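Morning run. Coffee first, then this:
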Amino acid sequence: MRIITNSAEETFNLGKKLAEKLKIPSTLFIEGPLGSGKTTLIRGILSHFGYEIIRSPSFLYIYEYPIPDGKIYHLDLFRVEIKDLQSKLNLDEIIDENAIFLVEWPEKIVNIEFPNIRNIKIKIIDENKREIIYDLSDSSNRH
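And here it is:
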């Protein structure tokens, strides 16, 4: 699916709609350049689950949000070096949990198997407009 959003609010609202389709366990690899709206989309997803204020994990790398029947993990890998990924995040400890994983900068992930990966790509068209391409169908997409 390809959609154009014309504001941060529309991107946020798209996140809320996408959240309705998420099942545990699953992973969203969210790609896009700096400032493209990845965290805004994730804020919308988390809003669907009752979280109105979220923190960007840019400096802590990962935040955990309890939800009914599991957890949501928001990973922001922008500042993590690939060689430090496993040691800084201890992903082995959480990867098998009953969870939804929302991963920004997933291209840094090497040799780590996340469950049911779906890809979302965000492209900047102009200051407010974004092209968002995604497929949340049941067939597993690999990064």
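Residues 2-134 form a domain with the Rossmann fold fold (CATH 3.40.50.300). Good start to the day.
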